[in-house]
Design brief:
mainly alpha; 4 helices; single chain
Length: about 160
């Protein structure tokens, strides 16, 4: 068994030696040259060969920059918009995410119910004003009756003395 292991090791050493002779991986002369090239700085190379430049005519063009970011976007502020009155929506301006300013009209409602309520309120006001006029008329009638009754009382009271 030991002979077999030594035999295999001997064959491997011989094969390695033959490979190193016919296929050299490192050459002493090449290694020193490559080390010298790597040691040069960019400034030295530019001093020897010059600085590479590209010359072109100036022209106006659009610059299109696109950047991609990944993550979740969270708004600075949110607002729940709710009207004072409900109803059928007849106008809807804008889309989700649009910017709006104070005073912008973004929703319009059907005005039929509002107009009916307004007309009912006008009729109610008219009836209330008629009630006031009736009350004033009743007040004048009662005031006149009181005045007449006072005169009658004074004349009748003088009759019984």
């Amino acid at each position: 068994m030991k002979k077999t292991i030594f035999g295999i090791l001997f064959i491997l050493v011989i094969a390695g030696g033959i490979t190193a002779v016919y296929f050299p991986v490192f050459s002493i002369g090449q290694a020193s040259d490559s080390m010298e090239i790597q040691a040069k700085s960019i400034e030295k190379i530019q001093a020897e060969q010059g600085k590479p430049v590209m010359v072109t005519a100036v022209k106006q063009a659009d610059l299109n920059l696109v950047e991609t970011f990944y993550g979740n976007v969270v708004p600075y502020a949110e607002a729940n918009v709710q009207g004072k009155y409900g109803g059928k929506i007849t106008l809807l301006k804008g889309n989700e995410g649009d910017t709006v300013k104070k005073g912008d009209i973004i929703v319009g409602f059907d005005e039929t119910d509002t107009q009916l309520n307004l007309e009912q309120d006008r009729i109610g006001k008219k009836i209330a004003l008629q009630g006031i006029a009736q009350a004033e008329s009743n007040f004048e009638t009662i005031k006149n009756d009181l005045s007449r009754n006072k005169k009658l009382f004074n004349t009748t009271a003088a009759f019984f003395y």
